[in-house]
Automatic annotation (TrEMBL), chains A, B:
This is 3-dehydroquinate synthase. It is an enzyme of class 4 (lyase). GO terms for biological process: amino acid biosynthetic process; aromatic amino acid family biosynthetic process; chorismate biosynthetic process. One of its GO terms (cellular component) is cytoplasm. It comes from Aquariibacter albus. SUPFAM superfamilies: Dehydroquinate synthase-like. Binds 1 divalent metal cation per subunit. Can use either Co(2+) or Zn(2+). The gene is aroB.
Length: 389, 389
């Protein structure tokens, strides 16, 4: 597995758009990163014009940004339809997808209809999958408005909905035409979502770039305080690493799986607690702690480096103690339906020294030990208590 | 638009497998055509081995062939799961797709699970779409058991389910690894389905090959009598023409749309009567009559050639008089949601001389005239009467 991510391409300020290209032959596209992109006509240059554009968003984001996006699309499409979905991971299902299809069909959307995904990871994943399926594929543009979506989910073409038996089980690899990451949209993001997004930013350090890990350690307080220059750097570097990985392995037949560091344990937490109880980034943060611990017990990672990972996740305000769920067997059952599993064998993304990831199975006994050492029934109780009745 | 289909590659007998390659770079594959392929281990050579294979079929076809297919897969997969769907176009929906996903997840299907689609067009379209979506894509093999599926729907990677507002509205372009067209499976096919399949065979003449049209005129009685040599020739020539078209335009951005000759009117009939009341091939047969008539009124096709098309469809036992549905506006509304429509403008596949197709819009008034001349309320009444209460 290649160990070196490409060098950083630094742009001078958060205001000036930065361009990170994703090289995928005919499906290549750019990620644009900068403050104020949403309202800048230049952001839309070269995107297709057609009779209908559909803005897909949710009840939280649409009131903030849908009109501003529609104003920019006005000259490019004769009609603009806005589809507002209920907010949250527990609506990431086929029934919600159908609301998009119903709206497209009612508005006589055709194969040239352009879908704009305006929102976080859930909106992006569902809009992208709807674009992949509607009339067997229509063009779409990602306009991510959460940190998590800007650094991870909007980039790389993974789209999906959840199935009751597993997260993101039903989906497609389908690339957008462009990603517009307007850093100004992060201003309205709740702190909890900034922290959840930082989980995916932190992820890129251990798997691909030890220097970036050092940088995050030094700049975490600035990131939590939403310092514009710090956020611009974090988003750009995250996208560069993701672009490098995705360009080499679009359909996750090898290298790309390293982007799932923390996700195997994380998915078990999300499925076990019920989707949406913890934010995806929170579950991934805790999952990275467990995977770091497992890497250490397998002798891949020294104890000091594992402790640095745990400490950084903790400083970001993310959970570092997991729920117990239904016990070890329950954890293992959730992880066996992970998409990286093969023939029922769970394959973990592990850290083989800071900045380098590998994939391998691990003995059930060792996995169970790690979960036992790092979980607490009080976490389950708190999660249950935090849920609306 | 290219006008010449490639020359026919003749194989000596229906028993010896014929191979029609579909050239799509990394997604290239072969259609194998012959009697007895299902039970011949050579048919499966080179297909992937893995822990799980899922045979997706329906209540009609599974009892006839699922065990024989499973016997061939036994040595290639540790476990074989058979998923039996309800039969018929009215089950071609997302709820039925979910039965496939539920079975795959319950059987711990992973990304290496191979899906075998055993049945007609509905089974093939749904299994293929399930393969496209499950864990964002798993390998699949088409084993078409109807004439319609062997000459059309199993070839070329179009997969889909219906939406209440339109047929095949939700789907994907997703190519199989191989198509195994065992002509012996046609022995058990009801006459009505042979006739419906012949609609798609006949289609290839007017759009691409006047000589093939002549051949069908001369051999229609042999085809209706299921003469093995005639069927082998019809399936092979149909697949060759389809392979030629699909290889040039996989995602239907141009040429491929000619394969939808008769389908714009046909979809309106299916949607208007209710999916499944007429077989797809019956609706397409009648649709080709209307489209031939429209071609003649637009001055593209001489009256003699149009009459030959109508006569051949009639001799095949297919309907040549359409239902009235809810009147002209109802027809137009159904056709405006056709996937070939753009910005609400209906685009028809028309015949520009036997053996040559073109795509263009037509004045609503002229379309309405054609429908009025070629429809009869008695057809609607008969369709209603034939439906189970």
């Amino acid at each position: 597995m290649p160990t070196a991510a490409p060098a950083l391409t630094l742009a001078p300020s958060p205001e000036i758009p930065r361009r990170v290209p994703i090289a995928l032959d005919a499906r290549s596209y750019d990620i644009l990163i900068g403050r104020g992109l949403l309202d800048d006509p230049a952001s839309y240059e070269g995107l297709p014009r057609s009779a209908l554009a559909a803005i897909v968003s949710n009840t939280t984001v649409a009131p903030l940004y849908a009109e501003r996006l529609a104003a920019q699309l006005q000259g490019r499409h004769r009609r603009i339809e806005t589809v507002v979905l209920p907010d949250g991971e527990d609506h990431k299902d086929w029934a919600t997808m159908n609301r998009i299809f119903d709206a497209l069909l009612a508005a006589q959307g055709d194969r040239k209809t352009v879908i704009y995904a305006l929102g976080g990871g859930v909106v992006g994943d569902m809009s992208g999958f709807a674009a992949a399926c509607y009339m067997r594929g229509v063009p779409f543009v990602q306009v991510p408005t959460t940190l998590l979506a800007q650094v991870d989910s909007s980039v790389g073409g993974k789209t999906a909905v959840n199935h009751p038996l597993g997260k993101n089980m039903i989906g497609a690899f389908y690339q957008p035409l462009r990603v517009l990451a307007d850093l100004a949209t992060l201003d309205t993001l709740p702190d909890r979502e900034i922290r959840a997004g930082l989980a995916e930013v932190i992820k890129y350090g251990p798997i691909a770039d030890a220097d970036f890990f050092d940088w995050i350690e030094r700049n975490l307080d600035a990131l939590l305080a939403r310092d514009p220059a710090a956020l611009a750097h974090a988003v750009q570097r995250s996208c560069e690493i993701k672009a490098w990985v995705v360009s080499q392995d679009e359909r996750e037949s090898g290298l790309r799986a390293i982007l799932n560091y923390g996700h195997t344990f994380g998915h078990a937490i999300e499925a076990g607690l019920g989707f949406g109880v913890w934010l995806h980034g929170e579950a991934v943060g805790c999952g990275m702690v467990l995977a770091a611990e497992l890497s250490a017990r397998l002798g891949l990672l020294d104890a000091g480096a594992a402790a640095r990972i745990v400490r950084l996740i903790e400083r970001a305000g993310l959970p570092v103690i997991a729920p117990v769920l239904g016990g070890a067997e329950d954890w293992l059952a959730h992880m066996r339906v992970d998409k990286k599993a093969e023939g029922g064998e769970i394959r973990f993304v592990l850290i083989d020294g800071l900045g380098r990831a590998c994939m391998r199975p691990a003995p059930d006994a060792l996995v169970t030990e790690v979960i036992a050492a790092r979980s607490d029934p009080a976490v389950d109780a708190a999660a249950r208590a935090a849920q609306p009745a």
